[in-house]
Amino acid sequence: MTIAVKDGNGDIQTVKTIDDLVAIVALAAKQDTGNGTLASILAKITADPATATGQAAIVAAVGGNLKTLDGGSAFATVWGLAGVPFASADQSGAVASITDAPVSGQKLVIDDIILSVDTDMTVTFKEETSGTVIFGPWYLSAKSGPVQVTLRGKRKLPTANKKLQVITSVAGNITVLVGSHSE
User: Fold this and answer.
1) What sign does the dihedral 56-58-64-66 (CA atoms) show?
2) Residue 142 has what DSSP assignment?
3) How far apart are CA 115 and CA 179, in angstroms?
4) Alpha-carbon distance 63 to 74, whole Å?
5) CA 7 to CA 14: how far, in whole Å?
6) How far apart are CA 12 and CA 8, in angstroms?
7) Buried (b) or exposed (e) across 46-63, using 16+ Cβ within 10 A?
8) How many CA atoms lie within 13 A of 49 on its CB side?
9) What is the residue-level pLDDT of the chain in tens, covering all 183 positions?
10) I need a labelling partner for 126 at 20 to 30 A (CA). Which of 56, 74, 135, 158 fits?
């Protein structure tokens, strides 16, 4: 099992062995303000991090600042537009918002997109107001969905306080559900 620990700089570091953990704790101890010493921290870590006992010891030693790398996202995903998927019979004439605005002063980050169409069309996703193309055009076949797009990296809108919008190339039913968060 691989685990991650925040080091003294607040950066996430991968821990696979006790040696990895010792190096991270040493960095944290160098920046310690007197609340503990490297020796006192290391004294708490005596078990293998691949075992439940070892993981519990690591969590205690680093003050609970621990997460698994495969535990899903560390943020709260918001789904849809006011919690509901966007649906339209003809979205070819103008863009329409398909997400809520991000938290004030922050940018919208797209996590997942689930969409379905009943007509051959292209679908383009744009940033509100600027019209910057975020995704697309995507060429979709009639009744080929639903299609799920789970991004492997961050796709953040370039401007704060803007929503994601959609436009299609022709009339036809489209349903889009976007999972997003604010940063």
Assistant:
1) negative
2) T
3) 11
4) 18
5) 10
6) 10
7) eeebeeeebbebbeebbe
8) 23
9) 456 655 556 666 666 666 666 666 555 555 554 455 545 555 555 555 555 555 555 555 555 444 444 455 567 788 998 889 999 999 999 999 999 999 999 999 999 999 999 999 999 999 999 999 999 999 999 987 789 898 887 899 999 999 999 999 999 999 999 999 999
10) 74
Q: Do you know the residue count of the chain?
A: 183
CA 9 to chain CA centroid, nearest Å = 22
Structure tokens at 135: 């995704």
Distance CA 9, CA 31 (A): 8
pTM for the full predicted model:
0.61
Q: Are strands 78-79 and 3-6 parallel, antiparallel or unpaired?
A: unpaired
- Domains parsed from the chain with CATH numbers: 3-68 (no CATH), 78-182 (2.60.120)
How far, in Å, CA of 168 to CA of 166, rounded?
7
For 72-98, write each residue's pLDDT tens digit.
556 778 899 888 999 999 999 999 999
Here the tokens at position 81 are: 């537009």
- For residue 95, the one-letter residue type is V
Q: Are 161 and 105 in contact (CB under 8 A)?
A: yes
